[in-house]
Amino acid sequence: MRERITYFSPQDADMDPNQLEINDVKVQGPAVEAVREHKITLTLPELPSEIAGLLRDLDQLQLRWATPASYNTLEPFSSRISPGLHVSYTPIKEDHDPEKLCTALQAFGRLDCSSPDVFINLSNERQAGSPALFFYNELEKLDGFAKRLGPVVCSGPTAAECRKQLQELKDAVSLDMSYDSTSESVKIQALWPLQKREISVPASPKGRTEVGILRIGDAPGMEAHEVGVSGVLAVIGETKTPSPTMFAFAARHRAAPGTFTSKFQQPTGLHPTLQLSLKTTAPPLDDGAECAPYAYFTFPKVIFADRYQLADELFLASKNLAAAKYVSEPVDLEAPAYTTKEWGSNVLLELAPPKDKAAAKNWTVEVPLHLRYLKPSPTGKEEAGIPYPAVFWACNGEQDVGYAINPFDRINLGYDGLFNPGTTFWHVSPKPEADGRLINNISVPVVTEGASQWVGVGTAVAVGLGFVWVLMKLMGGYAKSGHGTIKAAEDKDKKEK
């Protein structure tokens, strides 16, 4: 097992390396404003046999979770996904049964994922090597995951310290778990937000623990597409004094200036409009790269976008939209939520900022959506939460700029597979409208439970009345067509005879 804990501070942060205490069991230091990343790399033999057996049936697996709470971060941790749990994977066999994976995912909570129809097939429009199947589920916190995972991975004399570290996940803002069959290794990365925090890292009892205390800054020979850092490194049990370091690396994900908010226009009805308000300009690139703004949405099954409506160029232009670049399939435009098998849908929209530079500093985008019918409720209303999208500028670059050597790189986020490998993503920070949450709540009108009983009766009555009306019309038409006159003439002839 390899373990890496990194503290990243802003460029103006002041931390004296001489204040660090380094010994065979820990690294301790003063409080500093920083983002904290904890990364663990494990091989299959180091995992519990049940988990290792599950992974051997897969070519690759990615689990991505993001908090619904607003938070601040720094480069190189600028990448964003919609709040919730995102699961993508590629099975080795085509007839793979997802039930075993779904059972393992219950560690996060009660997830409805046992049926193969719940997962959506990712299209061939994505980069080669991207996962084949995808599933999403709302997930507020990781508290339950940490509690359920403790008995599985924590044992022996270090169990108490292991459980303590797991409990720290309740304050994390993102969690990534990745596996690929080529390396047969599992990588787990957790991130904590930018805030004042004490430097405290215990040694791992089962492997190597590397600690980095870094800050953003320029490095010698750094190029425009790179991020520079400087600071100190230490390996617990191997070094007694921190080693200075300074390096630069190409970053796939960068921080763009500005912010955006998301809200539903009122009143919503069954055809709500989601409005994105942006305070942003193009990222500061002067190397001739082509850049365009995008929004990548993750819609639960209760709501969807109509791909045919989004194909109308004039309609899109009126909403400050340029094009619908991707809509996952299938999306049934008529089915109610309670008969829809898929978890929901993903949509990638290219945005169209105003051409006037002054107007482009504050502009809005309107996304037309449609609510599905839900089951009746006692109140006639149901609440649904729609996660914020990921909003970014995508800038085309060279096919190979060395992203793979970035020690903090992040891939397979859903939208990155829809662009060429050399794309740089400049992320616009989300700003919540209220209560500090990156979730848009919407009240969905539904039939009340009492009224639903009368709906069936009313339908039957309406059908019956309609049948009687049609029958009367047919009889009236029969009489007017002359059949009645002919019958009367026949009766008259019989009497005369």
TrEMBL record:
Topology of the protein relative to the lipid bilayer: Single-pass membrane protein; Single-pass type III membrane protein
Associated pathway: Glycolipid biosynthesis; glycosylphosphatidylinositol-anchor biosynthesis
Keyword 4Fe-4S: no
Pfam families in UniProt: PIG-X
Tagged with keyword Signal: no
Keywords: Endoplasmic reticulum, Glycoprotein, GPI-anchor biosynthesis, Membrane, Transmembrane, Transmembrane helix
Transmembrane segments: 454-472
GO terms, biological process: GPI anchor biosynthetic process
GO cellular component, one term: endoplasmic reticulum membrane
Any GO MF annotation of the entry: mannosyltransferase activity
Primary localisation category: endoplasmic reticulum
Superkingdom field: Eukaryota
InterPro entries assigned to the protein according to its UniProt record, in alphabetical order: Pbn1 (IPR042322), PIG-X/PBN1 (IPR013233)
Localisation: Endoplasmic reticulum membrane
General function of this protein: Required for proper folding and/or the stability of a subset of proteins in the endoplasmic reticulum. Component of glycosylphosphatidylinositol-mannosyltransferase 1 which transfers the first of the 4 mannoses in the GPI-anchor precursors during GPI-anchor biosynthesis. Probably acts by stabilizing the mannosyltransferase GPI14.
Family, similarity comment: Belongs to the PIGX family.
Name of the protein: Protein PBN1
Organism of derivation: Trichoderma harzianum CBS 226.95
Species lineage: Eukaryota, Fungi, Dikarya, Ascomycota, Pezizomycotina
